[in-house]
Amino acid sequence: MKQQNYQHITQPFAPVFDARSRILILGSFPSVKSREGGFYYHHPQNRFWKVLAAVLNVPVPASIEEKKIMLLTHGIAIWDVIESCDIIGSSDSSIKNVIPADLRQITEHAPIRQICTNGGTTGRLYDKYCLSVTGLPAAKLPSTSPANAAWSLERLTEVWRREIT
Predict the structure, then answer these.
(1) Left, alpha or beta for 67 (phi > 0: left; psi -120 to 50: alpha)?
(2) Could you tell me if 42 and 28 are in contact, meaning their C-beta atoms sit under 8 angstroms apart?
(3) What does the pLDDT look like over 6-17, one tens digit per residue?
(4) 76-80 and 114-118 strand pairing
């Protein structure tokens, strides 16, 4: 078995938001596939875009531009709770030496009234590093990651819909 080593990686993506963003959805840190693809939730098995499109009752966006338009049209911002960290591959459980993202970049320029975290690790990281900055408790949603195979697309969509609409 090949041993993987930790890499120190800095968040490669800017947050997606505008002055109309009311909901902020946070992930932990971009996966290897997302970093390779140049945008959030790029792994083909990650169900984020399918779930969000179903919640919003719109077609699943294909391109990065379509994804940004879908988010901004519906008042949704996305980013991650981590600015940089040491990580092995895409494993959230391997994350260490965290430098949290400064969410004030968003919260001071958009009327964010709700924060949702994508997955348990993200929820814990948010509570540890970001809650004291934003003062907004996060709705902790089940992960859309392919690692969360116990949750069907339908079940994810149902839970996400309750928080986002």
Answers:
(1) alpha
(2) no
(3) 999 999 999 999
(4) unpaired
101: Cβ–Cβ under 8 A, 6 or more apart, which residues?
11, 15, 79, 80, 81, 82, 83, 130
Alpha carbon distance, N-terminus to C-terminus of the chain: 45
pTM beyond cutoff 0.90: yes
Do 145 and 4 contact (CB within 8 A), yes or no?
Answer: no
Q: How far, in Å, CA of 141 to CA of 66, rounded?
A: 24
Quick check: 2 and 58 in contact, CB under 8 A? no
How is residue 143 annotated by DSSP? Answer: P
H or E, element range at 126: helix 120-129
What Å distances lie between residue 65 and 118, 124, 151, CA to CA? Answer: 21, 30, 28
Cα torsion angle, 112, 124, 148, 46, sign = positive
Residue-wise pLDDT tens digits, 107-129:
999 999 999 999 999 999 999 99
Q: For residues 109 and 93, give the distance between their C-alpha atoms in angstroms, rounded to a whole number.
A: 32
Query: Is the distance from CB of 11 to CB of 102 less than 8 angstroms?
Result: no
